[in-house]
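U., I forgot to send this yesterday:
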Amino acid sequence: MIHTRRLAAVGLVAGLILVPAAHAQTTTGPAVAETPIVIGRSFALPSTVMGATREINVWLPPGYADSGKTYPVLFVLDGGQDQDFHHISGIAQLGTIVGTTRDVIVVGVASVDRRNELALPTTNPELIARYPTQGQSERFRRFLGEEVQPFIAAHFRTSGETALMGESLAGLFVVETFLKEPQMFGAYVAVSPSLWWDGGELARQSGTRLRDQSNDSHTLILTLGDEGEEMQAPMDLLIANLRDHALPGVSWSFTPRTTESHATIYHGAALDAFRRLYAVPAP
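Result:
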């Protein structure tokens, strides 16, 4: 064992000695130009509502600077640079390049404490004990409405067409916002929403919430993979209430994705949502 460790140590030292030599070889050749790849813009937005500076990321269509046009805005929850911002802005970029979807501004709103920011309050003692900071979704909604949306409208050319997208707990937040404050966004995309939270209470409330809404025009896109009864049962209840109580102004759809899991569903579902919300008008 001692002999083996000595050999490993010798190998490590040899490796450390070789690294500068290899580096020296690469630096003796012709200089190679290096240019950073700029994907978007990141803002540190001071938030009075959240009591902290928050990360907001923005992707602009390639022709934005010179077009003078206004654009729809897609707000993406869990939209940090190490979360879903690059994923969803990549879908927008591809649609622009190949001309399959309209140009759209993508705004990623980073999450810090997801159960605090995206989950509604629960009375379940087990959930409270496991996630003591949970249940501040109303505050996060105020942050979006009072600070993020006005910031984007003031700094970018927006058309007034807005959508909110999220997956899992962020999908739960999307559904809650649609039910409680549908006027905040024109369209809502909830991928595998965690409606199991608080024993499915939000789904149970959905009938009453839908009956109390105005008949303004809104779009709700729902999808769920093969994710078990805990996820499926509250979704079934929400769908039943939408069938029975959604007013004519609400355009809603549910797409089961039985070949997808919670881990694999987001990309295809987001791509389909882009194609629906930002379809290129027929010539």
